[in-house]
Amino acid sequence: MRNCPPTILEFYFQQLGILVGIVKQHIRNFMQDILTLIRDFWRTQPSLQTTLLRLVEAMPRALEDEFIPFLPTLIPLILQTFATNTSDG
Question: Has this prediction a pTM greater than 0.90?
Answer without folding.
Answer: no
